[in-house]
Amino acid sequence: MKIDLIAITPNAEEVIENAARTCYQSKPGEKHVIGDLILRLIKSGHHSVLEHAYATFRINGCSRSMTHQLVRHRLMAVSQESQRYVDGAKGGYYKTPWSLFTQEEESYFCDLYRSKWSINDIAKEFHINDETIRQILLRNDCDMRKRNHFKGVNEDFFERNTALSYQLLGLIFTDGCLFYDKKNNSHRITIKMKDKYYIEQIARFFDVTVNNTTEGLFSTSIHSKRIFDYLVDKYGCLPRKTHGFPIDLIEKNIPRNMLHSFFLGVFEGDGCVYWYDKNNKKGIDFTSSNVDFLQFANKVISEQCQVGVRKIKVSGGKGKNECYHLVYQSEEDIRRILYWMYSDLDFNLCLYRKLIRSFRFDNDRYLFNKIISAVEKFQKSYKTVVPMSFYNNMMDLFYYIESTKNCFDFYKTSRQKKEDRRFALNIGSSSEIVISANMREFRHIFEVRCSKHAQWEIRNASMEMLKQLYGKVPSVFEDLVEKYIS
Fold this sequence. Notes:
Blueprint: E1 2-8, H1 12-24, H2 36-44, E2 54-63, H3 64-70, E3 77-80, H4 103-114, H5 119-125, H6 130-139, H7 163-175, E4 176-181, E5 186-193, H8 196-206, E6 211-212, E7 218-222, H9 225-235, H10 247-253, H11 259-270, E8 271-276, E9 281-288, H12 291-305, E10 313-316, E11 322-328, H13 331-341, H14 352-359, H15 366-382, H16 394-413, H17 418-421, E12 430-438, H18 439-449, H19 456-472, H20 474-484
Antiparallel strand pairs: 1-2, 2-12, 3-12, 4-5, 5-7, 6-7, 8-9, 9-11, 10-11
Helix pairs in contact: 5-6, 7-11, 18-19, 19-20
């Protein structure tokens, strides 16, 4: 939050004192010091003369929750940024129900389709889910062309070689499935987990839907031959990848500075952090049915995190049913591995459940500082305010971040008028406001909002405004500075 004093009555103390002497027909003595009379008047309760001097502040980066509190002080002028022009982050693709469109709009989509536009192209052009376009075409009895299922919006996602793409690659290798249907020539990559918000983040990258499964899990499927072929050709990711990890291709095609992102995805897919208070048993466990992959992981983690090589443990049945474990139990080793994997913490793809468990090992607050840095990046991108109290409960913090993203996605992509879209913005969205008030009203604001019982954000703003006004008109605010700041 940035607070600037952009205007103040020139020679404000002299203006106030002249008004006061008019009331008492008094004249200053030869040795009179400007401000003495003001201090005596404030002490006696004669504050009306303070109304002759004004100040104007610009407050930027505050939440609308705070500005709603501020405008309740009615004796001031207020100008605030309109919600019609909120400049938040670029949203994703909001799943717009087809019933929101007029008949003319539906006809227009049909005309585009008949003119050889694909369903995917129409959806991408108008920021609409492709299945919505398909339903519109069916509803209007359009002759449907043979389609190659959903092509996906971000078919070059894995070709961008970003931290996110390598993280998702690690997740697919450990907890994803590749399917090829010869009969229908259909290619599909499916990810299934119990964490709905995590699956929703993945689905957002490709503009696909999230489905409930019979096992009570959530899944998403990426229907794309291009993505399927890319994963198979470059990384050797096969339907039965568990029993045949292509170590040579992984080692060759994943840059060393991106290995931490890849193994973060592996950890989120088939890894865990555990800490049993009863016997103080703790550790980080990478699990796989492929011993060669765990040996590769053992080698990489040893080099990257400066930890010793560990012995691979075996559990489960024999043969194909065997399960292997790479376990680290030293608290220092665990911390080094977690810091390495979370070195590029990004809320665009983060399994909060495992991050919170990892947080228990953070005695020197490294992960906490990483989370704060990621939140600050999120705040700048989505222009929102995150209360510090949310850091006391990580799940509250993460749910707030997710809900804020969804609100901005709707705001940016909705076809509603701007006057109605503003309903989607949460009260924590960042705003800018200009306020003007006389010195008497500012004293009232500070007396109410600088109190320790005031809400933290408006208290911080009021304390800063008090400091700045004290530097300009010290006699008017000297007692309040002594009460709230000194």
